[in-house]
Design a protein that fits this description.
This is Disulfide bond formation protein B. The protein is mainly alpha-helical and about 170 residues long. Helices cover about 70% and strands about 0% of the residues. It has one domain: Up-down Bundle (Bromodomain-like).
């Protein structure tokens, strides 16, 4: 329990969090620009969630011993992991529903007016694909199904770290 709790105060752990998210983003860009798989709106939202996890790792990396920085990191991590999981589950539902012809997804992302990411960075956040299309699979699972696994792992890791931190704090 101490080991898991102490991870939150170690630069390496936060760096690993940021590095894993960056790796996933680079993989997404590889799929988009090398394999020519067009990202749909749900993919773009999941991409934004990965960026939240990346920034959580950066915040924690640069100030792992500062409570405020760790709280900000936990907040970004939780927001990215849980929001990404919800979006990925919805995306899987869109692709697997027997009436998937009735599902539609927007072409333009619904980002806040104060942060139109699709206008600022269209190479990263412009949606050009169809949500219902399954154009890639690995071991029989589609991209959104793999993202459910990824976001579930991120969520479980956050829950384990927070539970350990709370358990240790209560024992003090």
């Amino acid at each position: 329990m101490n080991f898991i709790s102490n991870l939150a105060t170690r630069k390496q752990a936060w760096g690993l969090l940021a590095g894993s998210a960056l790796g996933l983003e680079l993989a997404a860009l590889y799929f988009q620009y090398v394999m020519d798989l067009a990202p749909c709106i749900m993919c773009i939202y999941q991409r934004a969630a990965i960026w939240a996890i990346f920034f959580a790792g950066l915040v924690g990396y640069f100030a792992p011993n500062q409570l405020i920085a760790r709280l900000a990191g936990y907040g970004l991590w939780g927001t990215g992991a849980i929001w990404g999981l919800i979006i990925a589950l919805e995306h899987v539902e869109m692709q697997s529903a027997s009436l998937s012809l009735f599902f539609t997804c927007d072409i333009t992302p619904n980002f806040p007016s104060w942060a139109p990411l699709h206008e600022w960075l269209p190479a990263l956040f412009e949606a050009t694909g169809d949500c219902g299309e399954i154009s890639w699979q690995f071991l029989g699972y589609s991209m959104p199904q793999w993202m459910v696994v990824v976001y579930s792992v991120y969520t479980a890791m956050l829950a384990a770290v927070l539970a350990a931190r709370i358990a240790i704090a209560k024992n003090l």
